[in-house]
Write a structure and sequence with these properties.
alpha/beta, two-stranded antiparallel sheet, 11 strands
Length: 383
């Protein structure tokens, strides 16, 4: 009997996305900073506690804005985890920065804060922690290091909406923060992102850089009688159609998150015991962090095992995917890397595999995935 394919991810419509997009069109305002952008900004600032929130077209845009706001210059050094998406580093490379890669920890793919002090030089300007799978980095240590050396902190919180560090929302701890609303995230807008500005002295410049380097936002608020070019910038703001879609998602965030938590916990309840006994790695949630149910992943014991597991699930019409390739070994940046080995970044490159997790994943389908994984290990460990 044939079975239906189970994708890795599936965009979820909460119910009012098209209604709000039509409302935006009928309002006659679908370019940036319309009604729905303002609604989203208010939600992030009033409900989630972000000091200043600015929608962007992507998390990549938010990170590129961060690099401009920090006035990163050629020769500046920025500390970035090697195990991350290319945008984390690329935003600063575009400004001429030298990327100094930080290894991951044995417990999870987040950067190892214990290495930071040894990597800081007089040229270091910023640290960019990535909250992998929505799980906070050890921000107590990281922020203390940054304060001692007068460094900016840019939180790459692309996966971390609705996740916290000691009760504080991720994205509010650093100088700046970047979120993603890509279709594979918890809360989506197709594409889309958010810059959080936690330093009041950067708020005005953030608005200027986002609006092509002009004070156009202040003009529309009636604060200046005309707007003009003040510094380099770009068009980082999204269409209000994107914001309208996002607003429908934000209205349903509690429900979306509740469902994702149920699915995440079902994986954990079924897999943790039998796989931990086999020394297969599972997600670790430190005591200072919360889990936003963005991702459930395994770390297999070898590359061969991971490859065989993916192939085994594929034969049963289930799509498992691995994740990042270590940036310090990438074709582009390997010639510029300082030669240090980063064993844990490479370990996750070769061993980590992500399981399907999305709102509409039926429990019967999730059981298929769980059963197929346990079946694989029952056979693999005997081979």
């Amino acid at each position: 009997m044939s079975v239906s394919p189970i994708p890795f991810s599936k965009p979820y419509l909460s119910g009012r996305e098209f209604q709000y997009m039509e409302q935006a069109v009928r309002s006659g305002k679908i370019s940036g900073d319309g009604l729905f952008t303002r609604k989203c900004h208010a939600f992030f600032e009033q409900e989630l506690g972000f000091q200043k929130a600015l929608l962007t077209s992507s998390a990549t845009d938010a990170l590129e804005m961060a690099a401009l706001l920090l006035d990163i210059q050629p020769g500046d050094e920025v500390l970035v985890p090697s195990y991350t998406f290319v945008s984390t580093a690329n935003a600063f490379v575009l400004r001429g920065a030298r990327i100094v890669f930080v290894d991951s920890t044995p417990e999870n793919p987040n950067l190892d804060v214990a290495q930071l002090e040894t990597l800081i030089t007089p040229h270091t300007r910023a640290i960019v922690p990535v909250h992998y799978a929505g799980i906070a980095c050890d921000m107590d240590v990281l922020l203390a290091v940054a304060a001692r050396h007068n460094l900016a902190v840019v939180e790459d919180a692309a996966q971390a909406i609705d996740s916290f560090h000691r009760g504080r929302p991720l994205g509010t701890l650093g100088t700046l923060g970047a979120f993603s609303f890509h279709e594979a995230k918890n809360i989506i807008a197709g594409e889309g992102g958010l810059l959080t500005v936690n330093d009041p002295q950067l708020v005005r410049r953030a608005e200027i850089i986002r609006e092509k380097g002009t004070d156009r936002a202040a003009f529309f608020r009636g604060e200046v009688d005309k707007y003009t070019w003040l510094e380099p910038g770009s068009s980082f703001l999204p269409s209000d159609l994107t914001a309208a879609f996002l607003w429908a998602q934000l209205e349903s965030m509690t429900r979306i998150q509740q469902r994702r938590h149920v699915l995440w916990q079902r994986y954990d309840d079924a897999l943790r015991g039998p796989l931990a006994a086999r020394q297969v790695g599972l997600p670790v949630i430190p005591g200072y962090a919360t889990n936003n149910a963005h991702m459930y992943y395994l770390t297999c014991r070898s590359l061969a095992e991971r490859t065989a597991l993916i192939e085994h699930l594929a034969r049963q019409q289930v799509l498992l995917v691995f994740h990042y390739l270590s940036l310090h070994r990438s074709p582009y940046y390997a010639p510029y890397h300082d030669g240090r080995t980063l064993p844990w970044a490479d370990y996750y490159t070769d061993h980590l595999v992500r399981l399907p997790l999305y709102y509409e994943l039926a429990e019967a389908d999730q059981d298929r995935i769980i059963d197929a994984i346990l079946e694989f290990y029952a056979v693999w460990d005997k081979s």
